[in-house]
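README, section 4: Worked example with a bound small molecule

Sections 1 through 3 covered apo chains. Here we extend the same pipeline to holo records, where the ligand is supplied as SMILES alongside the sequence. The molecule in this example is fe (ii) ion. Nothing else about the input changes; the structure line simply encodes the ligand pose together with the chain.
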Amino acid sequence: MHRQGHRDAAAIGHPALPGHEPRLRADQEPLGVLHRAGPGVVAEIRAGLFEFRRRAALGGQAADPDPAGATRRTGKPRIIETEAFFQFHFANGFEEDGTLVLDVARYPDYRTIGQALRDYWKSEWPSQGMATLTRLRVDLSTGKVGSRTYDSGRANEFPIINPANVGKRQRYAYIACNPADRVVGLQQQLARIDLETGAVAKHDFGPDGYPGEPLFIATRPGGAEDDGVVVTLVFDAARQRTDIVGLDARDLAAKPLFVAKLKHHVPYSLHGTFTPRLV
Ligand SMILES: [Fe+2]
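The generated complex, written as structure tokens:
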């Protein structure tokens, strides 16, 4: 059960950018408890769903003229409970027709990923107990939470979408994964998931390639949602070097659009971003 007066927020997904993590002032309350990890691991995770509250407050508008101010808006917190699970990362979240839709990399609990992270340098990185891309649908009138998974294999992590659709309905997500029959090992595939039809296309970097988080780079502003390039760093275990690989977001399984072979390796990273600006 949640502790009265507890004011920590947003252990749900860790921030990609320092300083962007949601924080609560003393007079604020989190929007609600979305999920909980197993007892003894993490007693409770409170979800600071400021983005979703903000969208709701703005009547679903995509543009937010005052994001810093909007995130400080508060209202009566709503507690929604569902079965226990754990997650680090969202692909996206949006609200439509009285339903909060959340696309997350969902773990059954923290135990497997927690142990793998503690043993990172020697872990075999088991697939059992790792995350699955899951679409949660929170019915805001009843508080009931439905879920759907996709044929995206195992060890799903680092879900991303076209950033133009953050906070808005999106159709496609991209995620690192392994084949369904893979028992151990870091991810060697990237998948594109059509969240409407359930269709999944995969690019396999095996036997020696290990991709990191995919990044979606739009071909042009205002283009179709999947008109872009999925770029990732791929560690080539045979060459002991890293490649920068670009895949056609519409045809992920196809031969890469480009492969830039670096003369060195790039240490495994978690998150990245892309900007057309040079600073
Ligand atoms: Fe993260």
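What to look for in the output: Residues 186 and 201 are 19 Å apart (CA to CA). The two ends are 47 Å apart (CA to CA).

Section 5 describes how to batch many such records.
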